[in-house]
Amino acid sequence: MPVFKDTEQMYDCIGAVLDFLRQDPKAAAAFRKSGLIIRFKYTNPDGEITIDGSEDPISLSCGPHIREPIVDMGMSADTAHQFWLGKLNLVAALSRGAMTAKGPIPAIMKLLPVITPAYKQYPEILRAKGLGHLI
Questions:
Q1: Residue 15 pLDDT grade (very low, low, confident, very high; cuts 50, 70, 90)
Q2: What is the 3-state secondary structure (H, E, C) of the chain?
Q3: Of 52, 50, 55, nearest in space to 11 by CA
Q4: CA atoms of 28 and 21, how far apart (whole Å)
């Protein structure tokens, strides 16, 4: 059974943690500096979320985005959930094929240090949405 009951719930939870990063001063500065447009394509449930660091302010969209991504990340929604809980290492997930990445991988790796506050925030987001049982 998937973690999220449907695409909207997945957007609500994972979109919220990405929105947190979009608004975090350190993470936002790093995303803007990178200029990356990163599309996260999820399965089970299917959907996509794009964070656009080429814009100021950084934009976030759930569903199809108008601009072509520079980086395409693919994974199941369950994998994304484990990642944001801090239970899944990006490099290990890429090595095992749990995540796929197309585009400048070193640029993605440079963003890892600034997203660490989201690992604490994600469980709080889930609790606030009445989904603490997913932690």
A1: very high
A2: CCCCCCHHHHHHHHHHHHHHHHHCHHHHHHHHHHCCEEEEEEECCCEEEEEECCCCCCEEEECCCCCCCCEEEEEEHHHHHHHHCCCCCHHHHHHHCCEEEECCHHHHHHHHHHHCHHHHHHHHHHHHCCCHHHC
A3: 50
A4: 7
pLDDT tens by residue, 99-117: 999 999 899 889 999 999 9
Whole-number Å distance between alpha carbons of 84 and 79: 9
Model pTM score: 0.93
Contact 60, 49 (CB under 8 A): yes
Rounded CA separation 37/70 (Å): 5
Residues counted in the chain: 135
Neighbours of 68 (CB within 10 A): 9
Query: In DSSP terms, which residues pair with 74 in a beta bridge?
Result: 41, 100
Query: CB–CB of 31/111 below 8 Å?
Result: yes
Structure tokens at 33: 């500096």
